[in-house]
Amino acid sequence: MEILPIDFDVPQYMRGKKLLIGKPENMTDEQCGPLPAYKEISDDGFPQIISCWQIPDEALAQIILNKGKFWVFVTSNVMVPIGFSVINPFPSPEQVQAFLDSQKKEAQ
Fold first, then answer.
1. For residue 21, with 0-12 CB atoms within 10 Å meaning exposed, 13-18 middle and 19 or more buried, which class applies?
2. Could you say which residues of the chain have pLDDT below 70?
3. pTM above 0.85, yes or no
4. What residue ranges do the domains of the chain occupy?
5. Residue 99 phi, psi (nearest 5)
6. SS (H, E, C) 15-78
7. Residue 60 confidence (pLDDT)
8. Kind and range of the H or E run holding 93
9. Do 37 and 50 contact (CB within 8 A), yes or no?
10. How far is CA 89 from the centre of its chain?
């Protein structure tokens, strides 16, 4: 019941860069696969890497049975700040235009 990373589209107007992060040299393909990701500087000024993960139905059912709990494993000697969201971080063109229109109105 693996939760696996999936490829995703990034709108062309985004300022960051889409990339494919490879596995560490000391790991096999069975231990770690490539990670489709998007790299940018956040609005707060911090570097961030965004990836998208697909939860299979049976894993989602297990999360529900566990009262919403799931576990995160980071293969590292340090724990970096991580976050989870069910909201797509990439605004649609309509959302971008609405924001730009609101900024124009505020500037008048």
1. middle
2. 1
3. no
4. 4-107
5. -65, -45
6. CCEEEEECCCCCCCCCCCCCEEEEEEECCCCCEEEECEEECCHHHHHHHHHCCCCCCCCCCCCC
7. 93
8. helix 93-107
9. yes
10. 8
